[in-house]
Amino acid sequence: MTFTAILIEKTEGGQTTELKQLEDSALPEGDVTIDVSFSTINYKDGLAISGTGPVVRRWPMVPGIDLVGTVSESSYDEFKPGDVVLLNGWGVGEVHWGGLSTKARLKGDWLIKLPSGFTPQQAMAIGTAGYTAALSVDALVKAGVTPADGPILVTGTPGGVGSVATALLKAAGFTVVASYGDESEKEYLTKLGADEFIHRDTLSGPGKPLQKELYAGVVDSVGSHTLVNAVAQTKYRGYVTACGLAQGADLPGTVMPLILRGVSILGIDSVMCPKGPRMAAWDRLDKDLDRGLISEIGTEVGLTEAIQAGHDIVAGKIRGRVLVDVSR
């Protein structure tokens, strides 16, 4: 028996990334085997596919940090053949073969059953980016931020995290200020729920440690100067969630907003997140994400097109989410 997968292999000059036919015996260890139906292209997948970031830590590697599919074999008590399951994170696509493949073998502890409110396509159009956005919104709400406190800044739009965060925040009653890079993006962001806009260039360079207090909270997936400026513009005792590093992993700022305004930075980890908060995030997505918006957020490609999509997302050419139908 064979399956089709994108395989990243290490070479003397760097790496190769190719679509290959592999024997089932090549699948890694795990207690649940899955016939994958859909995966996604996230920024992390793009870094792995293109070799532009140190994502892959075990070679060779099948990328893809998300997948949804049907269990074909299981020795894990919670799942049986025929169950439709979902995976986000857990080091898959980094140290364990991932979802850009027609088959996967995984640990049952990493899986949850597909929430009944979503089709497999919808779940992957949301993917880790959307699930991370839900974790971020949950963190703001649990911290006590309310719509009455003021607007929420969402950076990294129109990327996947920013797109879903915009929609979820609007559904929760918040006023949303979305960053943008091109005027053409405003129509898309308005459909998702953005009320106001700020050009990303106004956040991406060095800024003063303390700036005008504008936002009750922030959902940031960019990092570096963008995150620092967002913190500097957050209101007294406001909250900033940090979940990404699209601009950079550095944090070139000061502690002044933290100790003079009581601003808190909340780190959002979607990879090793425990099952409780993970399920709560999917519950929020089920409750608050307009199904009609999912088609606006997601673009579908086949497995044969996924390698190019990986390069495109790193180059900033992707809007929203990229859904991968691994059957084509």
Task: Describe it.
With 328 residues, the chain is α/β, with parallel strands linked by helices. It folds into two domains: 2-114 and 293-325, Medium-chain alcohol dehydrogenases, catalytic domain (Quinone Oxidoreductase, Chain A, domain 1); 128-267, Rossmann fold, CATH 3.40.50. The chain has nine helices and 15 strands. The strands form three sheets. Strands 3, 4, 5, 6, 7, 14 and 15 form a seven-stranded mixed β-sheet that branches. It has a six-stranded parallel β-sheet with strand order 10-9-8-11-12-13, with helices on both faces. Strands 1-2 form a two-stranded antiparallel ribbon. Helix 1 (43-50) crosses helix 9 and helix 2 (120-142) crosses helix 3. The radius of gyration is 20 Å and the shape is globular. The chain starts with a strand and ends with a strand. 48% of the residues are buried. The mean pLDDT is 96.
CATH topology of the largest domain: Quinone Oxidoreductase, Chain A, domain 1
List low-confidence stretches: none
- SS content category: alpha/beta
The overall strand count is 15
Top CATH class of the largest domain: Alpha Beta
Q: Tell me the series of helices and strands, N- to C-terminal.
A: EEEHEEEEHEHEHEEHEHEHHEHE
Query: Assembly type of the shown chains?
Result: single chain
Question: What percent of residues adopt helix (DSSP H or I)?
Answer: 25-40%
Distance between the termini: 18 Å
Kindly report the average pLDDT value: 96
CATH architecture of the largest domain: Alpha-Beta Complex
Number of domains: 2
By CATH's scheme, which homologous superfamily of the largest domain applies?
Medium-chain alcohol dehydrogenases, catalytic domain
Query: What general outline do the C-alpha atoms trace?
Result: globular
Please, how many helices? 9
Radius of gyration: 20 Å
